[in-house]
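Lab notebook, bench 4. Still working through the backlog of constructs that have no structural model yet. Next entry is a single chain of 361 residues. Request: give me the structure tokens for it.
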Amino acid sequence: MTAETIRRTQGRGRLFNSILDTVGDTPVIRINNLAPEGVRLYVKAEFFNPAASVKDRLALNIIEAAERAGTLKPGQTVVEATSGNTGIGLAMVCAQKGYPLVVTMADSFSVERRRLMRMLGAKVVLTPRAEKGMGMYKKAVELAEKHGWFLARQFETSANADIHEATTAREIINDFAGDRLDYVVTGFGTGGTVAGLARVLRKERPETKIVLSEPENAALIASGVAQKRGAEGAPAASHPAFEPHPIQGWTPDFIPLVLQEVLDSGGYDGLRPVAGAEGIAWAQKLAAREGILTGISGGSSFAIAMQIAERAEAGAVILAMLPDTGERYLSTPLFADIPEEMDDEERALSESTPGYRMAAE
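Model written out:
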């Protein structure tokens, strides 16, 4: 590569006051090798957020909205139930702002998530996997009530969808300004992403179809069964359609109040189930064929985007949300078939030259 053709960078043109100022403005990236002929397929890579997931956005806004409202006092402990990404985002925010953080999390979620939160200074209280999401949720409520801590309430707070309306949706609108955008595909955890997108896209890009997905074996929305709720819209019990699934971060064992806004307002155009194995397979293909490392949730959104792309009209433009990085899944089925040691082909390459060879096992 000559000096005339080498890639160059010029900096961002600003100095950042803290890590928190780097949240948002994640890139939309074209899929070149996996996309069917005749359509344009893109992904929004939320792992470009500083703590590597879409939940950095809501974590920051929950804390700052509470600061503005005066409901979070200086030095007060924050507590929240999370499958990991919100907890990691909150740990980053609380570390920068000086709040102690306690996270409750079912012990079924990946161990690297616990270690990341602890690395960022949080305390992680594990709950039995048999109690599912409701167990970790109720434990956070108990701790908040007993100790007078600030409960983040990601599943109910308006600060969740508000930040996606103000940032995620606006980024998409601006990135596709003057261009087609036929489909946006996303799953749901809290429902904040799809709620924020629906508020904006329904008004400014009504031609764009919002496709929502959920695990095939935990199809809470498709079941048509309403969620039982308690005070302030909190879930009162596990949803009867829930079964454990491998798509961490998606679909807890209840329908969050934040998502209920989307269901009540008709904020989506299609609902598609996806098998966890399919999400894993497409996450692996994204890594191997596109160099894009995302988690099982991202692979699951992409699986649905590929289904749409294969049947879409020529010229269609499709965007899939990728919520987080694949590095958050090292101890999960996503990496189960990725070996640590050399395989036969790698060993043969090693033995093709005489030096620096590993001893035979």
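Notes after review: The radius of gyration is 21 Å. The CA atoms of residues 105 and 136 lie 5 Å apart. Flag for follow-up if needed.
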